[in-house]
Amino acid sequence: MPHSELGLSLNDLDPSAAAPCRLPSYEAGEALSQAYFENVHFQYPFLHEPTFRQWEENVYHNTTGSASSTELFFVNMACRMSLPQTSKANANRRGIGDSPVCIIPQQLYASALLHIDHMLAQKNLESIQALLCCALYSMRSSVGRSVWNLSGLALRQSIELGYHRNVAKLNLRTNSLKLELRKRVFWCAYQLDCASSINLGLPLSLPIAEVDTEFPLDIDDSSISQDGILGLPRQTPDEPATTTSHGLHQFRIRCIWAHIYASLYSLAASQGHGPESYQAQVSALRKELDDWMAETPPEPCRSGAPITVFASIEDYKITYNESIILLYRGQLTKGSNEQSAVLWECMTAATSICHSCKRLYIGKPINYTWSTLHVIFMAGLTILHCLWTSSTVRQAARIDSVSSTFTNCTKLLAIMAERWEGAAPYRDLFEALSSRAMAMVVEQNRDNGRVTVPAPAGNSENPNTEDLEFWASQIADFGMPDTFSDLLSGLVNDYSPSAANFQDNLWEL
After folding, report:
1. Within-domain flag for 244
2. Is 490 within the bounds of a domain?
3. How far apart are CA 144 and CA 137, in angstroms?
């Protein structure tokens, strides 16, 4: 399949930076690939570092002929994914060789795309690895084809090759390295597809019930070769983490997500649950989430500063709290005796997400991604809904804490909007809704004699309902789960101060 049919086009790139370039010096390239394996590889271990090092050696030191397209593609992509999406304002502060960093990232991607047709024509392990590289590029960049499209292509090609099936049952005759890599590429494709599908409110490309392949071994890359496996895999959470441990931990949480979707949100689930069986399923899945968090591997040691949030404890906290909201989101809009407890649980999780994101991103030279934007906005939206819906939650919440959380969330969205124009509607809409919510919360507490913070200053340029509807429509174009779309629609509809029963609807529930 030609790259033009996949949308992997140089037209996505800045015209001033789209020309392919030479690789950086061997020393710089080696440092970049080391950063890749100490950061990106921990969460997405679809490459094999010893094999990559041989490719790298052939690219830089081949004396018998030119390097292969496979070698050139992966070396260029590993270097690209180790560089930040630096703005032009910072172009002259950092560089590699004679080239500014703001130009090199896109040029390296352009260099890799010179070989993408060859890679995709193979329809083998390397072609899936190439698609996963492109998906990760899109995830960490403001340009490129959607992660959902690319991960879906990688997953479908994995299915076509039978990678979703149990290796032992297939009785394959191949070496240990290929057996492990086929499991790794499948689970990397599955975790990307699962996360992007659920975040966009789309069905999973492959139901978890159709998957029976094993997880990869929890073992260092250096212990796997074509000749076999050296040493024993990691067996318990108490043992030191390997180069695969964090990837496996991500595979497990996406499997839990897939089970949550299948058990609670699929069409079959919506038609087959009574109240008791639904709650029993939620309780069982909650235990799986708690067990997963308790078994989180320790943060890895790196030779340099981290370039991603992958494998950090704060990132795992975000994933855990995001999973809590996923588990309970079907109950956010349902009136029940237990709803206040569910709303408080979700608000607590969403608040934790906002504070974790502040610690990870504000003042740190780490790239934001589309998934970061999504999780921050959904956390903020969840807090707004919980406050606006439940008097119990409003009474239990500390107003200074709510104010701090809104400030953090607004600041994060504002910083992202400065770097990526597509984030502007998220910033504008949340700023308007949170400002209105805080004014009303403070006013209610004044009436109750519980003033803890001053009332927010009035804004003569408050947006009207049409502004909010416009921003909401822009956000909807990116996609979101139905539950959050309903929450957003409800908040926007309730925003208009001209609605006669607005105050009653909001506070007298």
Report:
1. no
2. yes
3. 8
Q: Is the CB of residue 7 less than 8 Å from the CB of residue 49?
A: no
Q: Which two tokens stand for residue 356?
A: 């974790």
pLDDT of residue 91: 34
485 versus 195: which is more confidently predicted? 195
Q: What is the largest CA-CA distance in the chain?
A: 83
Of the candidates 66, 54, 35, 41, which has an alpha carbon nearest to the alpha carbon of residue 226? 54
Question: What is the extent of the structural domain holding 383?
Answer: 321-509
Residue-wise pLDDT for 224-248, tens only, equals 999 999 999 999 999 999 999 999 9
| Separation between Cα atoms, residue 362 and residue 364, nearest integer Å | 5
Contacts of 282 (CB under 8 A, 6+ apart): 264, 327, 328
For the chain, what percentages of helix, strand and coil (3-state, to nearest 5) are there?
65, 0, 35
End-to-end distance of the chain based on CA atoms, in angstroms?
56
What span, in angstroms and rounded, lies between the C-alpha atoms of 462 and 438?
14
Question: Residue 194: which of 140, 132, 147, 258 has the closest Cα?
Answer: 258
pLDDT at 234: 95
Number of domains in the chain: 1
Whole-model pTM? 0.87
Is 498 within a domain? yes
CB 430 within 8 A of CB 377: yes
DSSP helix/strand/coil, 191: helix
- The answer for residues whose C-beta is within 8 angstroms of residue 165's C-beta and 6 or more apart is 212, 213
d(CA 125, CA 229): 20
Q: Is residue 387 part of a domain?
A: yes
Which whole-number Å values give the CA distances from 459 to 380, 418, 439, in the listed order? Answer: 21, 22, 11
**CA-CA distance, 476 to 353, in Å (whole number)?**
22
For residue 50, what are the CA distances in angstroms to 53, 126, 180, 187?
A: 5, 15, 14, 20
Q: Facing residues of 225 across strands?
A: 228
pLDDT of the residue at 419: 82
The DSSP secondary structure of 27-66, one letter per residue, reads HHHHHHHHHHHHHHHHH---S-HHHHHHHHHHHHH--SSP
Q: φ, ψ for residue 472 (rounded to 5)?
A: -65, -40
